[in-house]
Design a protein that fits this description.
Blueprint lengths: L1 H12 L8 H18 L5 H16 L17 H10 L2 H13 L3 H5 L3 H7 L2 H12 L4 H8 L6 H10 L6 H13 L1 H12 L2 H4 L11 H18 L4 H16 L3 H8 L1 H15 L4 H4 L2 H31 L18 H13 L6 H25 L4
Helix pairs in contact: 2-3, 3-11, 3-17, 4-17, 5-10, 5-15, 5-16, 5-17, 7-19, 7-21, 8-9, 8-19, 9-10, 10-11, 10-21, 11-19, 12-19, 12-20, 14-15, 15-16, 16-17, 20-21
Amino acid sequence: MSYIMTTLDNLIHQTAFFNMTWGNVLMILVACVFLYLAIAKGFEPLLLVPIAFGMLLVNIYPDIMLHPEDSANGVGGLLYYFYILDEWAILPSLIFMGVGAMTDFGPLIANPKSFLLGAAAQFGIFAAYFGAIGLGFNDKAAAAISIIGGADGPTSIFLCGKLGQTAIMGPIAVAAYSYMSLVPIIQPPIMKLLTTEEERKIKMEQLRPISKLEKILFPIIVTIVVCLILPTTAPLVGMLMLGNLFRESGVVRQLADTASNALMYIVVILLGTSVGATTSAEAFLNWSTIKIVILGLIAFAFGTAAGVLFGKIMCKATGGKVNPLIGSAGVSAVPMAARVSQKVGAESDPTNFLLMHAMGPNVAGVIGTAVAAGTFMAIFGVF
């Protein structure tokens, strides 16, 4: 009888209930909210579902992120090994290759002025940098936090690892990916506040056709120019352009298909669950995390506003030929931000088609965020 009671007692104490804190319960509720937004509302489910499930797992079973040195047998938890691939910048770089293979750079090539809109939207990065310093973060931590303003999760993770700020990688990554997912909620009010009904109705001229040669040369030239000036951007810009070259060359269709489909989705699963698994209650529920989340939201709002305002300037300079809404797509959330530009424009005029015009600043924003990360690495002497 005592054997049975001892066995039952051991089984009961092995359940998660005895080790769960109120913080764990709160994070489980947050994970459920994220799952609801992803599944019921369709807010970027490819990102939110794995992130939310990783969050759910780590707050039920913390040892799923156990470090090998803390383990009795020297073996770490499953998601710890996924997370190591984030720290080593492997998964962010592969994500960039997949984005390159999925994205048509034609709108950017056809309208090079889009680079200016992409650059303007990076204002949020520098606003967050100075804001983070003002809130007491050191310069490297502030730089890592600031990339959230570009709504670029892979670059945020990449820079955080390179600058040795892995202690805050979890909150930074979750904030960046959460804001990427919530682009359809965050951006429209800012876009409508800063533009008039007449501006939102502006129809832009059709983009010129792009030759196959231009599409092939573009990733090669961008890689040479950007990586010569900022060699530290090579892992991100290089993989982005390699993926695009797979797409546009036409001679490696199998590689393009793999990079944009099977490999991309595998990487999203590994990266999403490992990012979500960094949000244990002990690591996430503190003032530093709260400040990072708030700074990220402010930075993202600043980046969106800066893009729209620069779009208004371009609208005036071109005699009303540029719809300011496409400036909001200068953040790096591809292609979500471009879709939002299209949606807000269509609300004012259902016949207005802005998607392809918005893709130019959107692609420029991806390159711009990578350049901003490379600039910070050059400033701090990190290679």
